[in-house]
Amino acid sequence: MKSLRILLLFAVIPWVATAQPSQPKNVIFIVGDGMGTAQVYSSVVAQGEGSAFLRFPVTGFSRTYSYNKYTTDSGAGGTALMTGHKVENKHIAFGPNREWYPSFLTKAKCKQGRKVGFVVTSSVLDATPAATYAHVSYRKQFDSISMQMAQCGFDVMIGGDLNHFLPANREDGLTPIVTMQEAGYQMIYDVKELDTARGPLLCGLLSEDNPAPAPQRGDMLLRGVKCALRNMENEKGFVLMIEGSQIDWACHDNDTVRLAAEMSDFETVLHYVLDYARRDGNTLVVVTADHETGGLTLLKGDISKRSNQYHFATGNHSGVMVPVFAYGPGAEQFSGIQQNTAIARKIMKLLGLGD
Ligand SMILES: [Zn+2]
User: Fold this and answer.
1) φ/ψ of residue 90, rounded to 5
2) Sign of CA dihedral 299, 334, 80, 205
3) What is the pLDDT, as a whole number, of residue 3?
4) CA–centroid distance for 327 within its chain
5) Half-sphere exposure of 287 (CA within 13 A, CB side)
6) Alpha-carbon distance 72 to 81, whole Å?
């Protein structure tokens, strides 16, 4: 009888182990805005065997169409990735029947007390970061978005666009910057301050308008990510969203020099995050795009010289699938062709937030 029990125990253990997906303590979600497979491959060619994209054990694709358009914008694209809902283009976490959809960052903060935040190379009010904390029917409602940001309670928020936080540049004359200071945020206006900034609440508004393109903005993204990770590590876990925002802008302009510089900046951050996740062992890293920009393809190049010949089909977004890369506990969930909304839902499930 005893040996039968032991036999049963051994028979059950492997089943339990495979039935339960591994649960990460921390999630780092990284968006390359406008980053399709050609943008990624151009970077793999440029970096050779040292490309960070080659370090991901799991890859998949994301279907990016929005609620009402074949080709999404960053408002609907960001919303799908952060909240798990497809909405109309130009809307941010705001449904067709005026629903407000919370992001997995908001849920992780409010339901579980995890630390949450974002670091981006655009305005902190741009569509992708806004989809993590704001709800608006039009993505350019910056007065409303900034006020919602000031009151969202995220632990770390870093990007550009100080101007929209000052009354002189607003139609409503409000002062979200004062709201944030009163809520206890340490405000950071200089990239160098990121190296020593101590929370618990941090807000970096590192440029008056949008941050400069790469390489002119230096290592702002990497420094922001280091600052965020240093301040967000805690026993309950954290959720950090990082965006390489200007890959999209370089592709809108069909500017190959800027695209290469943005991808190189992005690769540096990917390496840092993957090293962090490898050391930590309990951090899931997911990388994807909200959509592709430029209809980019690569017809020729020289592998030995690490060069690409770029061809753009448009100055706008395209409707093609975009790649997904995953590393760490739960990574295997992100393989195959999936809806952009499924990415958010899988993250919520892995975090124990339902779906
Ligand atoms: Zn765009």
Assistant:
1) 80, -15
2) negative
3) 54
4) 15
5) 27
6) 12
Q: Which amino acid is at 184?
A: G
Provide the CA 338 distance to its chain's centre, in angstroms.
17
pLDDT class of 22 with cuts at 50, 70, 90: confident
Q: What is the pLDDT of residue 199?
A: 87
Query: Reduced to 3 states, what is the DSSP secondary structure of residue 211?
Result: coil
Instruction: Please tell me the distance between residue 249's alpha carbon and the centre of ligand 1 in angstroms.
Output: 6
Nearest to 130 by CA among 173, 94, 183: 94
Q: What residues contact residue 43 under an 8 Å CB cut-off, 6+ apart?
A: 51, 53, 260, 263, 264, 266, 267
Tokens of 181: 């200071």
192 CA → ligand 1 middle, Å: 29
Q: Which residues of 282-293 are buried (b: 16+ CB within 10 A; e: fewer)?
A: ebbbbbbbbbbb
What gap in Å lies between CA 166 and CA 176, rounded to an integer? 7
- Ligand 1 (ion): which residues have CB within 5 A? 248
Furthest-apart CA atoms within the chain: distance in Å: 81
Q: Cα of 90 to ligand 1 centre, how many Å?
A: 11
* pLDDT at 91 exceeding the cut of 50: yes
Q: Which pTM does this prediction carry?
A: 0.93
Q: Separation of 347 CA from ligand 1 center, angstroms? A: 24
For 39, 46, 246, 316, the CA distances from 266, given in Å and listed in that order, are 11, 13, 10, 21
Taking the centre of ligand 1 as the mean of its atom positions, its distance from the CA of residue 163, in whole angstroms, is 22
How many other C-beta atoms can be found within 10 angstroms of the C-beta atom of residue 95?
18
* Cα–Cα distance, 63 to 142 (Å, whole number): 28
State both tokens at 174. Answer: 């409000």
Strands 297-302 and 307-311: antiparallel
Q: Which one, of 44, 83, 37, 46, lies nearest residue 341 by Cα? A: 83
**Which residue type sits at 175?**
T
Query: Three-state SS for 303?
Result: coil
CA nearest neighbour of 31 among 251, 325, 278, 232: 325
